[in-house]
Design goal:
This protein has 114 residues and is mainly alpha-helical. It has a single domain (26-113), classed as Winged helix-like DNA-binding domain superfamily/Winged helix DNA-binding domain (Arc Repressor Mutant, subunit A, Orthogonal Bundle). The protein has helices at residues 28-40, 43-49, 54-68, 85-113, and strands spanning 73-75, 81-83. Strands 1-2 form a two-stranded antiparallel sheet. Helix 1 crosses helix 2 and helix 2 (43-49) packs across helix 3 (54-68). The mean pLDDT is 94.
Length: 114
């Protein structure tokens, strides 16, 4: 059993719009982009902090917004971006659920391994 002691489960949460025909989901990647926008006030800075091109970040945000049917960011050109009220609530819910599921999975994994 000692070879299992260093292992831990990983949970991959995603939020979807069941009415959307798009494959876009709100998952870890877009959540990290949104967290970066919350911290920096800029989608460009958030993307750069993740090693991602701004154009790719912009496409991810637009695709996710279209799939979910909500606007995540308010964009103000050269003045940066902020999360919308809906974007803030969705991000907060995602982070809280993700944390809880990860904690529960780790506890259950440890319990099962004994």
């Amino acid at each position: 059993m000692s070879e299992l002691a260093n292992l831990k489960p990983t949970i991959r949460l995603s939020i979807m719009n069941p009415d959307s025909e798009s494959g876009s989901l709100f998952g870890r990647g877009i959540a990290n982009l949104c967290l970066g926008v919350r911290e920096t006030g800029s989608l460009n800075a958030s993307a750069k902090g993740m090693g991602m091109a701004y154009s790719k970040a912009w496409r991810i945000v637009k695709d996710t917004e279209a799939a979910l049917g909500i606007q995540l960011l308010d964009r103000d050109g050269a003045h940066g971006s902020t999360l919308t009220e809906a974007g803030d609530k969705l991000l907060d819910a995602y982070v809280a659920i993700d944390k809880k599921l990860q904690e529960d999975a780790e506890k259950e994994f440890a319990r099962i391994l004994g």
